[in-house]
Amino acid sequence: MHPSERRVQRIVERCLRGLSVEQKVGQMVQAEIANATPTEVAEFALGSILNGGGSFPGGNKQASVDDWRALADAYHGAVRKSTHSDHPVPILWGTDAVHGHSNVYGATVFPHNIGLGAARDGDLMEAIAVATAREVAATGIDWTFAPTLAVARDDRWGRTYESFAEHPDVVVEYASRIVAGLQGVAGEPDFLGPGRILATGKHFLGEGHTTDGRDQGDVVCSEDTLRDLHAGGHRAAIAAGVQTVMAAFNSWHGTKVHGHRYLLTDVLKGALGFDGFVVSDWDGFLQVAEDRAEACGSSVNAGVDLLMVGVEWRAAYHDLLQQVSAGAVPMARIDDAVRRILRVKARAGLVSCARSSARPATVEESVVGEPSHRELARRAVRRSLVLLKNDGVLPLKRDAKVLVAGDGADNIGKQCGGWTLTWQGTGNDNSDFPNGMSLFDGFVEATAHHGGSAILSPNGEFGGDSPDVAVVVFGEEPYAEGDGDRDHLSYSTLHAEPLAILRRLQERGIPTVSVFLTGRPMWVNPELNASDAFVVAWLPGTEGGGVADVLFRGPNGKLDHDFHGRLSFSWPRHAMHTPLNVGDTDYAPLFPYGYGLRYGDAIDRPGRLDETDSARGMPARDRPCTMGSTYPR
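Below the sequence we write its predicted structure tokens.
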């Protein structure tokens, strides 16, 4: 055993001996900051807190970095001064920093995972993780619920954009790089040192394979498929030293993973050798049984160590305590869970209970949204763009008169998507992103001082002379999880206006470039037909200028940036063409996995695509999210 691990073991056993049964149970409960004050956290000796999507210090979406740090200090200070325990154990704060520290006003928001998967760049992934860790640590938070390691197999699933690829190879490659970037390299001196945070491998296991792409649904596949297709990213993350794993909402052959002892204990903690702790997803343990107390006990017995509770954390605390008192949950299982939680806290250096604002990584307040992180995000945008069609209109000249149309052109919230300031990513406007740049801002920057111009017209109308080219930016509205589930992949069935704009421009003889903002491949044959060039920008985050970097020639007329991205998800031929995955026996996509044009490629002039919409008249899935309306939005 390494000397540092012997020290961790001594700390853990000393702390464990000093805890009462009530305090041990408290360590196994995680409460949301809107529902638990620092005093309450100390009184119940809670092990962890989190801020859900749309939850901020004082309920203020524009809370400053100082506000976040002050709240972290308040929680840590309350625990440190608590008279409830002779051995106060530090609190652990987790957050959904899933594409940058995206809950925090002014933070750098990177592209969502689907775009990063198209980039095929492990070095970039690690650099993004390092930057994210620095920004999270600067706000006094210890832990991110990332990376998502799902292999999405049905694009109707509302979490497809959280997946890097439909094939496990990309997920496996990225898993270790992201974990190393967030935590540092296991065994090295900087592991969980200043500027590093705890990572989470999520969600274990199989969530990308649910029937019909239903969020939190049932996975019906063999164990071989579960192992070979969906577990690779988790194996890589564990090998890289990931300290926490989040259980998945889905079932496997009808049994909820939160209550699946074979998967969580025998496989994860046994066969895979994971020695950190397992955290539930938001109230996920409550899906295991109708009785709350039984649900608590069954989840813990299955292998969940920390219960993430949406609102009723007191009920969960008393339910678990009752289950222990009744003998339904053995003390050995409680001790194992608490030992795992303490081990992670000790490895992260939290046992000193140092004030968050006194830590070296927290002193650098200016790191949140710093220029180097913004430039990194802009590079990620450039690397993630995928060119599906180019009939010679791209690249653009900087002296061109460019009409910029579409409701996504000057809409930073739309280009960021879900899990951005709010849970669903809705209710945001450009003023909520003081360090952000819309795609339109990028076009203005590209044409300024070069004799060109960028004119914003959301509806595509213009007066006077015709523009040289029109760029129409459109796509999906922000969503997250179950709210993003669909029954089909047709875009224009629900969003007719962008196609109308493209056709009007086409009829007037104006060259058109489509820039598509999306969290999944979609059937866009009509839009492709109405475009001279078609670019998939995915959900690029706050640095919209990266799109213009690639679409325009450099100031000297040469190419500064070529297209780089390649599809990490196969593109459908029709609106019901899903599941569609590389390796299928009947694989026949419109654009295959790995497709992506470069400027040096021959001009692509495909024949007119079939515009028969197999989803016409079929509404998108309208189903309430099973997490309920209590999640902070």
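The CA atoms of residues 368 and 539 lie 21 Å apart.
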